[in-house]
UDP-arabinopyranose mutase (Gossypium hirsutum), 359 residues
Amino acid sequence: MATVSPTPLLKDELDIVIPTIRNLDFLEMWRPFFQPYHLIIVQDGDPTKTIKVPEGFDYELYNRNDINRILGPKASCISFKDSACRCFGYMVSKKKYIYTIDDDCFVAKDPSGKDINALEQHIQNLLSPSTPFFFNTLYDPYRSGADFVRGYPFSLREGVTTAVSHGLWLNIPDYDAPTQLVKPLERNTRYVDAIMTIPKGTLFPMCGMNLAFNRELIGPAMYFGLMGDGQPIGRYDDMWAGWCTKVICDHLGWGVKTGLPYIWHSKASNPFVNLKKEYKGIYWQEELIPFFQSVALPKDCTTVQKCYIEISKQVKAKLGKVDDYFNKLADAMVTWIEAWDELNPSGDISAKIPNGASK
């Protein structure tokens, strides 16, 4: 798994999106795996600060001034001072696939001590089918050495298109602040050699720090919400996108995989700072989960955009009374789709999007 292909997979069909506030020295360790690909760097915070990128990488860098210039008044839907700003990179990409990674994520090693090529594993996940309608007890039946078990319906063995590949992390686990506070020294050392499809009708907490998806299929649903500066909540950006995405994938018949690949998550964020960002989310999620579990999308929602607008209406109708923030978020969801369609005017997201975006 850790060897680099002579011709990198999907070299001209995938962008790597990185949100950051600092110099990207971490790219040095990813060089063998990332250098052939185009990077989209979304600089958060002070736009006058210069972010250094190691030499030899093909990249475009957008700061807040660029976001305001490109989106105009619609820039209000892109979060500021929060890694949720990464979704602007999804919007301006013109590639079929996206891999997004945080700048504190390093190359992990598999149990044999080999460097894990996370990107290659994500690509393999996205290029093989998913099985959301019937669980295979041997996990992913398309991996070498695995297959469908006895009793698995033959009519379902072709699987469906994989829209999302959700990777995991060694070292610092992706915990919320209360769990961080009670387990400050806990580290994830367990390497589980498994990939599975999350079943239809089952939600999951999506983490955005090691994530790949088929932008052409599901891109408009990958909105990381209104977080950070001026908002009452943070650290729920990727989870919001995950809940919306999963409901839409279930409706349109696509799959979401989770498991391999692992990255090495190098530093724990401050649990007290996190608690301040999260505490409303921890309270609200008890309403959010039942809401997403009960979202019903009508049959005429045949595109991701239509599904997403329908979810925004239901957010306003049902969650608006939980807090006025959800009315603002519902409006931002609509603004996001309008901005997406302006920058990606194909209309039908399943239509082929030309490759090779450049500022």
Summary: Residues 14-343 form a domain with the Spore Coat Polysaccharide Biosynthesis Protein SpsA; Chain A fold (CATH 3.90.550).
